[in-house]
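Lecture 7, part B: from sequences to assemblies.

Below are the input chains for today's worked example.
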Amino acid sequence: MKTSKESHKKKIILSYTLAIVVPCIILGLLAFRGIRNDQALMEKEQLRVLNEIAGNIITKTVAKLDSLETGFINISEELNPPNQLIFSDSVLDTYIKEEKVISGIFFAENNQVKLLDSDILFLPDNYFGASGQSDQYNQIRETGWNYEFRERNYVKAVEYFKNKLSVINDKTFQGEVINIIARNLKKQNKHGEALELYDQIYKEYPDIYIQNEIPLGLVSLQESAKIRFMQGDAAEALKIVNSLLKNLDESHWKISKSYFFNSISEIRNINSEADTVNAEIKKWIDNNDSILNSIVIKEKYTDDLLSFQEKADILTMSKNVSTFPSYRYRYLTNGNTNLVALMKKSENQYWGIIYNQEELLSGTVVPLLKSHASKTKFDWEVRNIQGEILINSGAVPENNVSTNISFPASLPPWSFVLYPGQKSILASFLQTGEGVFFYIFILIVVILSLGLIFILNSVSNELRLSKMKSNFITTVSHEFKSPLASIRQMAEMLEQNRVPTNERKQKYYQGIVQQSERLTHLIENILNFSKMEAKQREFRFQTNNILPVIEDVVLSFNNFMAVKGFNIEFRKLSPIPEFSFDKEAMEQVIHNLLDNACKYSGESKKVEVFTEEKKGEVVIGIKDYGIGIKKEDRDKIFSRFYRVGDELTQTVKGSGIGLTIVKQIVNAHYGRVLLESEPGKGSTFYVVLPLKFE
Ligand code: ADP
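Predicted structure of the full complex, as structure tokens:
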């Protein structure tokens, strides 16, 4: 039995697989392929959009530099060609401070490059030429030099120069002499006096250059700082260093490269030797360090700019190009690629701009990238010519699909690597093509799931019903067995004359009748059930009084059940007019309900039957005080073969068709069965029948 059920189940699943699952899988695979194809198309489209964005950013950057150069041409028309190799110009100075993307301006003429001095920290050593002193004061210098360096008689040197000071009118030489006096005082350890003089120099001669090369402002600050530091006043020393550094950072003086590096290294010494325990000192050190960092950047860049001066070929590469008024190109100095623009002034004269590429990147390219990336989601990198990442969008792109676009020759030698933004799988599914494949896919999944649910449901229903049927057969056979056994036992005893008294004999005859009545009911139930199942049962409606019908059934139960201690009370609450019903069927209804009331009474032995007429209907109530029925079982108990699964019910014999028959009969009378019940306290079944029906 079990194996045949199992093979039935297998058969259903197999045919389901063949008929639905296999075609669905094939369709699904096709749809999936469609989705993949669509995804590839979408990727292509994304890359096309990114290429367009990259082109757009490059065009805008080029346009920005172009317009900057046009603006510069306008300004330069007013300017005269400079005549010094390093020249100053206040108009260009202001201009270069405003246009951060420009790092240097030069003028090229006959293969000679003249640099604007703005932001240049130092000048090449050879710029200052030989520092031979050939003015009228040479005699004084020489005498003083002898006292100081040959005789090392600093007192005498101081005295000598102090005397001379009163007769010197030239301000430059005055400054130089005061500086020599201060130096000699310092050598005598007369620090206080030396400091006073350096203060005076800084106030009165800050922009005087000794031997055209060394600014007194710088010397005085540097010496004051050293003396303060020696005296142990680190805070003051660092404060002076700070103002010295600020001056250097702002290119206050024109100094030679070697003098500049000499000063910087002395300053670094003071800054690094100072003790950092004191909070104020620490503050100055940090402050100075940050200026030193800025200076380091400018040093490199000054070197770069200066190297332009040595490059006489700067013009040759643009000689044959006809894109003037401005021509922008990459130019190699010291192994660095610079971006340079030339603007023709006259036949052999050009103004030139050297661009600040870091600024071009952070001030123009990156903001453009960010603004595009905020609209179209993508990750980006800007790489240099070696392929190293200069800057990126921050996120490490998971996407290995990317587009790589190189910058044109009129921009730095960089490239963009753009990665399409990652979309969620669902979003990209929905976006594919017209979404058709995705919907097919979903449809298939839905069909498969519904089919599976349906099949599983019907298979399990089928199994449950067949289990119920087999239970039914077992229980029914048991129900037959016990009355038959007792009939046989009693009949045998009578036959063999083993029952002594007439009274006992009478009891036995009654017993046989009752048991056979029970059997009859059982058989009737089964026959009626199968007839009703086959829709073959016919009812014989006749107008009749229902009360005697009920009374008969109650009476026979009372007779039968009295042995078990039951007392069935019948209350007629109101008179009931005659009406049309099938007598036999109604007997069966009352019998089944009373039978249940007794069977499921548990310890209680009290059952009540009552009848009344209410609003044109007959109400027949059968009330017990037994085990009751749980809420979730109240509807199910009317289904065929259904029996409550708890222990209390299972100890009682039953077939599970009694209530099904009740319901079917009552339905045929256009009535209804109602139920009130409380587990543990008992149940009342109401049969409600209309007095009239069409
Ligand atoms: P059965 O032959 O099992 O009594 P029925 O169709 O008459 O079949 O009843 C279905 C189920 O309903 C019973 O198995 C029992 O669990 C429950 N039931 C019926 N009447 C009562 C009642 N008066 N009290 C408690 N449970 C009942």
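Note for the exam: The CA atoms of residues 222 and 575 lie 130 Å apart. Keep this in mind when comparing with the next example.
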